[in-house]
Amino acid sequence: PAEYIPAFEEALREMVSNFDPSYAKQGTANKFKIGVTGSFGSHHVSPRGLSSTFLNNIVYVEGIVTKCTLVRPKVMKSAHWCPTTKKFTFKEYRDHTSLAGAMTGSAYPQKDSEGHNLETEFGMSEYMDHQIITIQEMPEKAPPGQLPRSVEVLLEADLVDTAKPGDRLQVAGIHRALPSKANQSGMFRTIVIGNNVVQLTKYTGSTDFTAEDLSNMKRIAKRDDCVDLLAHSLAPSIFGHEHEKMALLLMLLGGAERNLANGTHLRGDINILMLGDPGTAKSQLLRAVMRTAPLAISTTGRGSSGVGLTAAVTVDTETGARRLEAGAMVLADRGVCCVDEFDKMLDADRVAIHEVMEQQTVTISKAGIHASLNARCAVVAAANPVFGSYDPSLPPMQNIAMPDSLLSRFDLLFIILDKKDAESDRRISSHVLRQHCSRHAPPPADLPG
Q1: CA-to-CA distance for 231 and 222, rounded, in angstroms?
Q2: Are residues 165 and 373 in contact, defined by beta-carbon separation less than 8 angstroms?
Q3: Do the Cβ atoms of 40 and 58 come closer than 8 Å?
Q4: What's the rounded Cα separation, in Å, for the pair 152 and 131?
Q5: pTM of the full predicted structure?
Q6: Is a pLDDT exceeding 80 seen at residue 241?
């Protein structure tokens, strides 16, 4: 690619100069670029699949943006004025990522070939924007139990600012190893030099439905008990809880959001809180949602902080610049965010969720960075009552012990009780035994009325 892409760009510049010579002579910083698109075959990989075999080849990487650096100018050509000889001298600069030739030094010339002092004319120098983003493999495609891999992508010129944290991208570019002077071990940092960026704004789930799947869908859609059947099919191993399953099904299918003509945004995502005694399958219902939803991010109350849920400002280890890092709710944009052990969260961390659940944005004003990120996700939370188990002698508000401002953001609140009743216990135990006796899925038991 390093040989062919400059040749393509040169041919494009010649073609443009035939049509409009004045436009083609606007300087080296406005060079005409070509973007690569199409089918990449085995070179269509996730960050986990980027191995040494792809070095110096074109790759097509897809993933989710987790970090963005600030956009900085990079000098491409400097102009220097010599007061003694009254002449200009120009110098071009290339770094490790350049395709046009060998790398040049980054120092400005102080004297010309005859020893006269030079003054840098910054107005006549030419610059190019550049930015580094980090792409992480999509959470639903990462192997379970392994940390998601990420890769850095260098964007230049018109490609900068095409993505923000939380966006899903497909990036075509050249996979390249960068040498470093301080490195003596022979291990190099690799990046992808971006050539074309495609946003994945469409639905993130699988669209590979077979003809049999489509016929089954149409057949089920004609049934009168379609919604009840789907609700019973969600987590079939859990007995009862038909109202909770119905609510989770409707949340997965999603409401319709409204953007009114006067600028009002009405959210379409349904937020659900399940609160109840230990051992009533709340976490199992969350797991069922995680397996069913095409995009679901799971967090726990004690294991996540407020900035881990929303967004954090971190310091780049290489440049020292501050950059934005997306949290769990920003990564779950257009998906579902499951929060288990919701009652164990600290109050300071729980406040961070307020804005996400109603406005569906994350606004940050830290360290000189002011940003608003989209976090259009449905929140499903599971919590225990304040005393560990539900106390029927107290009113519900004293059992829940959460602020009203947070409860008002949940559209559905389920209180799940572990009733000590011999008949219901017998039904549950027979359901569990029938599951273990049969190799196939058991028929649905008679649900308690």
Answers
A1: 16
A2: yes
A3: yes
A4: 10
A5: 0.62
A6: no
Query: pLDDT tens-digit profile of 318-342?
Result: 667 777 777 777 777 778 888 888 7
Cβ contact 266:260 at 8 Å: yes
Three-state SS for 113? coil
Residues sharing a CB contact under 8 Å with residue 434, sequence separation 6 or more, in sequence order: 442, 445
> Which residues, other chains included, contact 108 with Cβ-Cβ below 8 Å and sequence gap of 6+?
78, 80, 91, 120
Q: How many CB atoms lie within 10 A of CB 352?
A: 20
CA–CA distance, 47 with 68 (Å, rounded to integer): 17
Range in 97-101, 147-151, 418-422 the model is least confident about: 97-101
Average pLDDT along the chain: 76
- Give me the helix-helix angle, 226-233 and 211-221, nearest 10°: 120
With CA atoms as reference, report the closest residue to 121 among 93, 87, 147, 148: 87
What's the pLDDT tens digit per position in 58-95?
Answer: 888 888 887 777 788 888 777 887 877 777 777 777 77
Angstrom distance (rounded) from CA 226 to CA 219: 10
Return all residues near 247 (Cβ < 8 A) that are at least 6 apart: 270, 272, 412, 414
Q: What is the mean pLDDT of residues 387-409?
A: 79
Amino acid, res. 119: E
The dihedrals phi and psi of 414, each to the nearest 5 degrees, come to -105, 130
442 phi and psi, to 5 degrees?
-75, 155
